[in-house]
Amino acid sequence: MYNSRISGLFLEIADMLALDEKDRRFEVLAYRKAAQTIDDLPGDVAEIYRKSGLPGLMELPGVGKSIAGAIKEYIETGRMAKYDELKKRYPIDFRNLTKIQGMGAKRAYKLYRTIGVKSVEDLKAAVERHRIRSISGFGEKSEAEIAKGISQFESGKGRMLIGTALPEAEAIVRKLEASGLAGRIVIGGSTRRMKETVGDLDILVTAERSGPVMDFVKKLDETERVIGSGPTKTTVLLKAGLTCDIRVVNDKSFGAALQYFTGNKDHNVRLREIAIRKNYKLNEYGLFDGKGRNIAGRTEESVYKKLGMDLMPPEMRENRGEIDLALSHKLPKLVEADDIKGDLHVHTSHSDGQNTILEMAKAAQERGMEYIGISDHSKSERVANGMDDRQFSKHLDELERLDSKAEGIRILKSSEIDILKDGSLDLSDKTMDRMDYRLASVHMNLNMTREEMTKRIIKAFETGYVDVWGHPTDRIIGIRPPINADLDRIFEAARENNVAVEIDSLPDRLDLNDENIIKARSYGLKFAIDTDSHSTSGFMMLRYGIGTARRGWLTKADVINTKSYGQLTRYFKR
Ligand code: DGT
Ligand code: CA
Ligand code: CA
Ligand code: ZN
């Protein structure tokens, strides 16, 4: 899968072009937009090129002739001349440095020019020697912020977002399927459990002969180098930057192997204890009775069943109580992507989205949605072109007009309203009164004390205007830690004020996370699973929000946007 590599190169090219003395704003935007498009593709961009050549690439939104040429060049040669050229001028690891909170490309460049920082390691050394604070434009405070950013960065290192890992694994599965060398091909491990970050990929394959499968994997486009290989297991380092374990098992043990390699480890350990108590033995080859006879293993279900349990979804397998529920046949029926009837967090070209209201509505309709809530930013989000009350007045008129015109989908009037520093909301009551529902999020002033932040959010809820709390803790995985706030008190206030909490499907947000979902649910809260889409391709991210919701054990009834249009509008009016 070439997508993440190519979009990464484009983002870095954009960063470097932006440093130029000449104004290259349009080129910078073009590369950013192309990076976004490629990142959002459901399949491999290389497949598009192989099937339809340059013209196929140029049909992608935001991909013109020269960018298509760069994609082609990279797929064919593994290099990109434009990138290499810029890199000579800027020998700086922007990709990792800009992941550190408090470090944009401009600041990275300045540190390079003044004290020669090229990499995260250099930056770390400079921070430790307190060399940052004396550089103009930085100071002690930003040195401390960068130090914090580095430790946050390091804690996420070596793991990859599910939003990158899953498409990568799927691309390999598709190729194995097309090869005809294997029978069943299934993704296991943390990827199957939809964990927010993944350490390595685990793929299980059945095949009559393992040799040809292993050879195929070693020669994949995706493979950077082979780490180890034997008849049952091959480990390769992928160009995407993570390793992949491929195991070949036989049909008779497939279910037992899938169970074992799906994990997680604690879940497996408990399962094995239950087997031992029954005088059985459980391993990746099957379930065996006291006489060593194989009594289950062809399917996962057979293994769980012989242990007295119902089969539970992979997302639940974290040893958080799911085993007891399975033993007592009380597993919940978890929410599914098909249950979602609409999206309540959508941006359009009226603030920082790329597509018009109608384009977004049409794309949502094509995905089978019954309604879409348009939630463009409020005025304090200046960087995101937020609108003030006057602009909203026109915007809401427009939404009403489009709703009456659109066929097959309803358009709900909303906004992602900033929760300001003092807990007030960013729009007037009059404006908010006109909306079908209100989404409210914290975006700025994130460095408050725990008490201040808690009060700020509770105060916003107490206005009575908040229907959904957007991306609640505001974390960005590997980049920004969650806000420091007392979630117990906030959830209590959410219940009292009928505020549903959001699960934002963007793979670097997935906020609320699984553990906080379980906590919020214990307060009786409802949830909205949204995509926070900024373009028509954004709706594809829904599956990550669904995966996270399932990791938090949510059912259809817990999620408000599983309601029909009629039910939902009644719910908001109550
Ligand atoms: P990751 O790769 O760190 O995101 O997490 P996983 O869960 O994919 O872990 P991984 O790849 O090390 O191993 C895949 C599965 O294999 C894991 O979920 C459970 C099983 N497994 C690995 N090591 C052990 C072990 O020592 N004991 C048991 N019972 N199972 C194990
Ligand atoms: Ca793994
Ligand atoms: Ca593994
Ligand atoms: Zn937001």
Short description:
With 574 residues, the protein is of the alpha/beta class. The protein folds into five domains: 1-90, DNA polymerase, domain 1, CATH 1.10.150.110; 97-155, 5' to 3' exonuclease, C-terminal subdomain (DNA polymerase, domain 1); 160-248, 2-Layer Sandwich (Beta Polymerase, domain 2), CATH 3.30.460.10; 254-327, DNA polymerase, thumb domain (Beta Polymerase, domain 3), CATH 3.30.210.10; 337-572, Alpha-Beta Barrel (TIM Barrel), CATH 3.20.20.140. 45% of the residues lie in helices and 13% in strands.
Question: What attributes characterize this protein structure?
Answer:
574 residues, alpha/beta, DNA polymerase, domain 1, Beta Polymerase, domain 2, 5 domains, five-stranded mixed beta sheet, five-stranded parallel beta sheet, 45% helix, 13% strand, globular, binds 2'-deoxyguanosine-5'-triphosphate, binds calcium ion, binds zinc ion
Query: Structural class, from secondary structure content?
Result: alpha/beta
Total domains = 5
| Percent of sequence in beta strands | 5-15%
Q: What spatial order of strands do you see in the largest sheet?
A: 2-4-7-6-5
Taking Cα atoms only, what radius of gyration do you get, to the nearest Å? 25 Å
CATH architecture group name of the largest domain = Alpha-Beta Barrel
The number of helical runs is: 24
Question: CATH-wise, what's the superfamily of the largest domain?
Answer: Metal-dependent hydrolases
